[in-house]
Write a structure and sequence with these properties.
The protein is an alpha/beta fold. 40% of the residues lie in helices and 18% in strands. A hairpin with a 4-residue loop joins strand 6 and strand 7.
């Protein structure tokens, strides 16, 4: 059963969205760059992932940009009383027990929707050493949508959005371009240095994709 995108959203989700936007503005976060106004579908590659507040501030920034952020979640979170709330918050259920893998499920979601801004924390867990998994890239390539890089500077309280980049199929070269953009924003962030080296190793054939 698919989410009815035309029904009235729940009261709880309206309240939570208002709280998110209030916290974002109250904390004094600002935006550098902008989300693309001429694009309806894209993957937002967000980094770094340093705390559970990352989602709140990223969500606040996207709402400030008048874009509904979407995110992937385990399908069991969309059952029972939480079902409508999760959909209203932009959640997209992913069932890992299905024959279709995550990339195929998300491609189908992009295909059926008129608009979709999928936010992915590309560093994975907060304990990551800085290397990225290729899932975000594979989803964007399969869906034939661009990747929009986004970073959070917690010290300066800035959320920054970069130019959209269409995946070319050369993962190493594309990852290097993304790594260099992120490093230009946070040059001293150690995990971005690891990311850049990961890209160079992939290009040189020293690292599996």
């Amino acid at each position: 059963m698919r989410h009815n995108e035309t029904r009235q959203v729940t009261l709880l989700s309206r309240m939570v969205n208002r709280i998110i936007l209030f916290i974002y503005r109250w904390k004094g976060w600002t935006i550098e760059g902008a989300l693309p106004k001429n694009l309806k579908k894209y993957v937002i590659a967000g980094a770094p992932h340093t705390s559970n507040w990352d989602f709140v501030f990223f969500a606040g920034a996207t709402k400030h940009e008048e874009v509904q952020p979407n995110f992937m979640g385990k399908h069991t979170l969309f059952e029972g009383m939480m079902r409508n709330f999760m959909f209203d918050m932009g959640g997209i259920p992913v069932d890992r027990t299905k024959k279709a893998n995550t990339v195929e499920q998300m491609k189908a979601e992009f295909d059926r929707r008129k608009e979709l801004a999928l936010v992915i924390a590309v560093e994975g867990t907060r304990s990551s050493d800085g290397k990225w998994k290729s899932g975000f890239y594979n989803i964007a390539r399969a869906a034939q949508v661009p990747i929009v890089p986004a970073y959070a500077d917690n010290e300066k309280m800035i959320i920054g959005f970069g130019p959209p980049m269409m995946p070319t199929g050369n993962y190493g070269e594309d990852l290097l371009k993304l790594a260099q953009w992120f490093r230009s924003k946070l040059p001293d962030y150690e995990r971005f240095k690891v990311l850049e080296q990961q890209a160079r190793d992939i290009i040189a054939g020293r690292n599996a994709v």
